[in-house]
Amino acid sequence: MARRYDPERRTRIIDAALRVIAARGMAGLSHRTVAAEADVPLGSTTYHFGSLDELLVAALRRCNEHFVQELRGSAVLAGPEAGGGAEAAAGDAVSVGLADELTRLLGRWFAGERGAIELEYELYLAALRRPVLRPVAAEWTEEAVTLLSRRTDPETARALVALMDGVCLQVLLTGGAFDAPCTREMLSRIIDGGARTGASGGGRTAPR
Q1: CA distance 124 to 165
Q2: Of 30, 9, 17, residue with least CA distance to 122
Q3: Which run of H or E residues covers position 121?
Q4: Neighbouring residues of 119: CB distance < 8 A, sequence distance ≥ 6
C-alpha cells in the first residue's frame, strides 16, 4: 500500500514531543512515546528525526519562536536602528517607552499558561547537558538582541535580554509572581546606563 502523503506529520510529531515533555519531563521522551502521542507509526518519528537530539532541537526552536514573535510584533521595536544626533534626541522623548514595552510583553507572557512557560524553559535549560541544543538556545538571544538594537545600542540590548532571562528564571524557579514595577525599574536603569555611556563617548548614543 502506498504511504499516505501527510505534509503536516513532522509538525504533529514536534507538537507531540512538546506534550510528552510537558506531561512526563525530559526523561519521558522517546521515539515510542512521541509516536503514541502523535498517533503515528514509530517509523514516522525516526524518519523525520533520526535521533532524540534532532527532535529536541526542533522542539526548542518552536518554543523560541513564542517570545521572539512578541518582540517582532511590537510597534515600539518596529523602526529604524538607533543612532546619534536627532535620533538620539528623539529617543529622550520615549525614555520610558522601551522599558514599559518590555515589561508589558513579559507580563503578557506570564499571563499565559504556566505549564507552557515552564516547558519552554525546561527545554532551554536542557542545553546545559545537551550541547547540541546550545546553538538553538543562542538563536533566540541573538534575534532578541538584534530586535532590541533598533532602539538601543547592541551592548545595552544584550544586557536587557540577560535581565529578562534572569527575571523569567527567578519567577519560574521560586514560584513567585511577576513583579512588573520592579522589572520596569531594572530595565529602565539598564537603558539609562546605556544612554549615559553613549552620551559620554563610551559607545553609541542610544534612544531609551
Answers
A1: 11
A2: 17
A3: helix 114-125
A4: 18, 21, 22, 63
Asked if 106 contacts 164 with a C-beta cutoff of 8 angstroms, the reply is: yes
CA-wise closest residue to 192 among 91, 75, 42: 91
CA 80/CA 69 separation, integer angstroms = 18
**What is the CB-side half-sphere exposure of residue 141 using CA atoms within 13 A?**
15
Contact 40, 26 (CB under 8 A): no
- Closest C-alpha among 113, 202, 200, 101 to residue 150: 101
Q: Do residues 65 and 15 make contact, with C-beta atoms less than 8 angstroms apart?
A: no
DSSP, res 203: S
171-203 tens-digit pLDDT = 999 999 999 999 999 999 999 986 666 555 555
What lies within 8 Å, CB to CB, of 63 at 6+ separation is 18, 119, 120, 123, 124
Q: Give the list of residues 6+ apart from residue 196 with CB closer than 8 angstroms, or none.
A: none
Reported as a single tens digit per residue, the pLDDT across 29-82 is: 999 999 999 999 999 999 999 999 999 999 999 888 877 888 888 888 875 544
- Triad 154, 61, 208: Cα angle to 5°: 25
With cell 521522551, the residue in question is 29
CA distance 161 to 158: 5
